[in-house]
Amino acid sequence: MPIFFASDFHLGADARCSSRERERQVVRWLDHCVREGADAIYLVGDLFEFWFEWEEVVPRGFVRFLGKLAEITDAGTPIHVFTGNHDLWMRDYLPRETGVTLHQQPVVHQLQGKKLLIGHGDGLGPGDYGYKRMKKVMTAPWAQWLYARLHPNLAMRLALFFSNKSRESQPSETEFYGPDREWLVAYCERRIAQDPTLDYCIFGHRHLPIDYRLSNGRSRYLNLGEWLNYSTYLRLEDGVATLLRWDDSISVPLYEGSAPGLVINRES
């Protein structure tokens, strides 16, 4: 039975299509996973452009997506949700209301005879020290308490404003910079040095679909890409991981040089 992985839906932000239409695409993809007999579904961070849970309030919208999560878990298929840098303030709402399992740190899972390291990817590896300092502040209980004192209307507008500014300041997400400049590659190399039995290192955050064979010759770093432009995901079946692109109703393999998407160093 296949296991599916996706990340970086960024619901709440318009891009190639509107957030509402992308939400519908994600729901159709989730239906596809169920029809394919999914053993589990992993949603690896930045599902929302911004998320915060006040005591009695949650962000408006996303009812199709949240309802689909509840429908799938109610039917017995487990869904694992990871917090990302855009929705790191998830707490107990999704687990309580939709039945998902929430992870706030990378995890190692044994699946289909393979050992997988799974996480969103923000703040990992060398560099990005400004974000790492900011994340320490944002994940502090006192910072969340202070933010919760803001009226939700103001809090959401502020968060979405700074989220858009942050996206505009990011480097190109269409180019692989090489193992020396890709922080998640460096992080994966360090992890396989500590644990050579890791088969797959699966992350999001980078916004570029990547399939990269690591220096030990057997482990692979797989980046799930995003749904703002690429609509990519990963299927694990019989221990074989394959990056695919969701074309609204069908799955399309990604090959080196294809557009959109990028697969590199898979066989070398």
Automatic annotation (TrEMBL):
GO molecular function term, any single one: UDP-2,3-diacylglucosamine hydrolase activity
TM spans (from-to): none
UniProt keyword annotation of Cell membrane present: yes
Gene3D superfamilies registered for this protein in UniProt: 3.60.21.10
Alphabetical keyword list: Cell inner membrane, Cell membrane, Hydrolase, Manganese, Membrane, Metal-binding
Domain of life of the source: Bacteria
Domain Calcineurin-like phosphoesterase: 1-208
GO CC terms in record: membrane
GO biological process, one term: lipid A biosynthetic process
SUPFAM superfamilies (alphabetical): Metallo-dependent phosphatases
InterPro entries: Calcineurin-like_PHP, LpxH-like, Metallo-depent_PP-like
Signal sequence coordinates: none
PANTHER family on file: UDP-2,3-DIACYLGLUCOSAMINE HYDROLASE, UDP-2,3-DIACYLGLUCOSAMINE HYDROLASE-RELATED
Protein name: UDP-2,3-diacylglucosamine hydrolase
Species annotation: Neolewinella marina
